[in-house]
Amino acid sequence: MRQVHHPEVGEISLTVVMGALSDPIRVGLVRVLADGRERGWGELRAPVAKSTLSHHLRVLRDAGLTRTRQEGTRCFVTLRVHDLRERFPGLLRAVLTAADEQDVGLQVSVQESPRAAVS
Amino acid sequence: MRQVHHPEVGEISLTVVMGALSDPIRVGLVRVLADGRERGWGELRAPVAKSTLSHHLRVLRDAGLTRTRQEGTRCFVTLRVHDLRERFPGLLRAVLTAADEQDVGLQVSVQESPRAAVS
DNA sequence: TAGCTTGTTCGACGTTTCACGAACATCGAA
DNA sequence: TTCGATGTTCGTGAAACGTCGAACAAGCTA
Known about the structure:
2 copies of one chain form a homodimer.
Chain A (H helix, E strand, L loop, with lengths): L13 H7 L3 H10 L5 E2 L3 E2 L4 H14 L2 E6 L2 E6 L1 H7 L3 H12 L6 E2 L9
Chain A binds a DNA duplex through helix 3.
GO molecular function (chains A, B): DNA binding; DNA-binding transcription factor activity
Protein name (chains A, B): ArsR family transcriptional regulator
Keywords (chains A, B): DNA-binding, Transcription, Transcription regulation
């Protein structure tokens, strides 16, 4: 569809990342991707219109939290676990732990599909 | 002036905290308070109008990041280091480290004053 | 009491964010 | 080539945010 931009590791900004994580749906997406496995866009389930979901995924991507790969007409998303660890040691773990305790982002899930995300 | 509200430790919300940390000035304030010492409101220096500074300090307070104590006509602010560690283990350190590396919030400083913040 | 200091609140302004449905672009399949 | 599936983009509101100056409230100090 288009060639999206992903910031370099060194360009990932703290405040932008914090802003990206200030929305429950986006935290939910991060949780769902936290195991590092690649997920198909279409597998992601959130209680919002698809244009809104596209918006949230864009915010995460622009912030440098996720990476989007295109394959034909569909997209696959991954959390940039390695990059995040490098840029913000300890942050991801802290956020995931807190999100877990506070049940943030439970509205988001993945509809596991047979031929999706070949890990 | 008024009786401000501070959330309990258990009420501090991840997404609200992340939102509070998504502004450079607020991150700067957190940095300046990071040593745990109490600071006088008037000591805080930031390149914004005092009403704006008041707003930022309120956001931090409402999010549960800081505590404000009043003494006569002046206020003293502290970072809730202990509470934050309890609620979000590892988060504060990660944020401070990243802020340090990225020079976030350098616009904020403290004008050390003689009789201020008796640690 | 009058006045000063300190910080909050208010109202206004422009920007950004989140949400939606509709339209669009692209690719694979029929 | 036509059709369907998949996401993005656009246009539009409503709400939230960051900022300011002005007005205010509360407590010292003279």
